Amino acid sequence: MCIRGGAGTPPAGERNVYGLGRQWLVRDGAVVPEAVLLAHHDELARLGRECPEALHVAQVVGDPCYDRIAASLPSRALYRQALGAGPGQKVVLACSTWGPQSLLGREWPLLERLVTELPPGEYRTAALLHPNVWNAHGEWQIGSWLAGLGRRGLSVVSQHSDWCGALAAADVVVGDHGSLSLYGTMTGAPVLLTDVPDTGLDPASPLAELSSFAPRLRADKPLCRQLARAMATYRKAGYERVAQRISSEPGRFAVKMRSLLYRKLRLRATAARLAPRPARLPVTLRFDEPGQVTP
Fold first, then answer.
1. Using an 8 Å Cβ cutoff, are 293 and 287 in contact?
2. Mind listing the pLDDT tens digit for each residue in 154-196?
3. How many CB atoms lie within 10 A of CB 206?
4. Is 251 helix (H, G, I), strand (E, B) or coil?
5. What dotted CATH number matches 66-243?
6. Could you tell me the sign of the dihedral formed by the alpha carbons of 217, 220, 224, 230, in that order?
7. How many of the other CB atoms lie within 10 Å of CB of 177?
């Protein structure tokens, strides 16, 4: 294990990026991974500061989720129907990362308010949870927690579902400091943030830039008014600027990743035309009977 200190300590205001520091990439003085895959050229520059000895194995290949969401946006109406949204209803997607600082960990009353305050004829509320939430608590436990809200109209996207389609369906994204809020900048929907913790968020990250201008949900204000204002004052330029920081190879992940794998395997790549595929339709949990949860 390599311990950083002295001249290697990051300057004030700059935090190590998970996965790009020496503690993850170097062991006994040697770079361990055969390849370090990056989504954006900005990350390549960051790797050069964090662990320059790993630059020779770094490859900028883009982001598969970025490509999949972009390919799904033209089919937005199909994903809305899969979430149970009717004609004229707006889909409000509540997105939670994992841990005690997440929306689910800190803002549980917000889910209840979204279901109870928003007129059901105008809004359809859905919840999208990070895989670590499901892994930590299990589907039965999460289903039990959310069953009451589910029977009152909350659509809970299954852990076995393709989450990219749910994000493509959103008219409004309500999120925390997780990556789903960042991907929400691609959808053309306003992103409203809950209280984002000051600690642990890289100030140079795209998420920090989003946090600098995205509206914050207020617990003391009616939700309808806040959502309506966010949609009315939406300005796409800021969101597009953040979305462009997710991938510097839009639409090219499959091509670049395939080329890299064949090169590493020392095989000749077969002729193929690869294009990002739209996400499968989202699947939601069913809360048919008290105590019964089915995907």
1. yes
2. 999 999 999 999 999 999 999 999 999 999 999 999 999 997 6
3. 19
4. coil
5. 3.40.50.2000
6. negative
7. 23
